[in-house]
Amino acid sequence: MSDTKRQPSAWPTRAAAWHLLPWALALAVFACMPQYLPLGTTVLVMVLLTLSLDIALGYAGIVTLGHAAFFGMGAYTAALFAIHGHNDPLLGLLVATAVTAAFGCLVGMLILHTEGMTLLMLTLSIAAVLAEVANQAKDWTGGDDGLQGMTMGLVLGLFRFDLAKKTAYLYVLAVLLVWFVIACRIVHSPFGRSLDGIRQNPARMRAIGTPVWLRLVAAFTLSAAMAGTAGALQAQTTRFVALNSLTLMVSGMAVVMLVLGGIRRLYGAFVGATIYVVVQDQAAQINPYYWMLVIGLLLMGTVLLLQGGLISLLDAARTRLRNRFGGGRA
Asked: What is the CA 249 to chain-centroid distance, rounded?
């Protein structure tokens, strides 16, 4: 019998490094590529929007094309809060998040008795109604001209929003980290596992006593709150809210980013949103009229060739590295 002790695998340490990689890359962009901070800020906001949709559509199975309603409501709430004399960014962010969470809870209680195409059309209709309300309420929202004139205070009373977007970038990154930790804890909790069961077979979950409707409403409320935070961040960092923040374009964009990155993969939001925003920016510089063609071809290729989204390519690379340096152990 050998007296040699089995050495513990170093793979858990490397696995933890994979989880730190997106955040390290984000900090690297801040440190090494300051000229891309405005674009990077947009990417981080879109990551949060995509993450919010993944909670509702990916994990809870709630079919929706109306996430623009929460994104736009969060943006208008934060903007109006700042314009009317309360320019503290964190306070405005909390108010916008609370308002969209309350609205999401109300909407969820009203529509989550339905499913399939009916549910899809209801979410789409709610966003369309809000967009028309914002268009007509020009005294409050600016209508087609958008809402401007925001003055943002200091973040934590210390950091001023600058033209280079340094404060805005780190501010959005910090808020994204908080929401990501919350989302990660939730989807890996018993509540998150019950959502997965509801998505796969709601009838069976009801049969074992799971309060399906209540849990769907809770997931929808959480998703709405996250989307509202993303909208508020967009408004605070750009100091402008356009009417198109409530349109189908925003909802469709979120779905495309989610599919590109990978559904039910929290880090897929990072991949999908980054690819979408960067490709859109670069393709639009080459030809401002055909960037959607590039996005469409990329989406088609992802759907047809990569069942798990673009993040599956990173999974394949990770598996190869694990097999090569980890002795083939899982």
From this structure: 15
* Ranges of each domain in the chain: 35-248
Each residue's pLDDT tens digit, 29-40: 999 999 999 999
SS3 325: helix
Q: Are 49 and 227 in contact (CB under 8 A)?
A: yes
DSSP characters for 180-213? HHHHHHHHTSHHHHHHHHHHH-HHHHHHTT--HH
More confident residue, 285 or 323: 285
Task: List, in order, residues 6 or more apart from 18 with CB less than 8 Å away.
Answer: 318
Q: For tokens 């469409």, what's the residue?
A: 296
Q: What is the pLDDT of residue 15?
A: 58
Q: Which two tokens stand for residue 19?
A: 């989880």
CA distance 186 to 184: 5
CB distance 74 to 94 below 8 Å: no
168: exposed, middle or buried (C-beta count within 10 Å: 0-12, 13-18, 19+)?
A: buried
Determine contact, residues 241/30, Cβ cutoff 8 Å. no
Lowest-confidence segment of 4-8, 109-113, 212-216 by average pLDDT? 4-8
Q: What does pTM read for this prediction?
A: 0.91
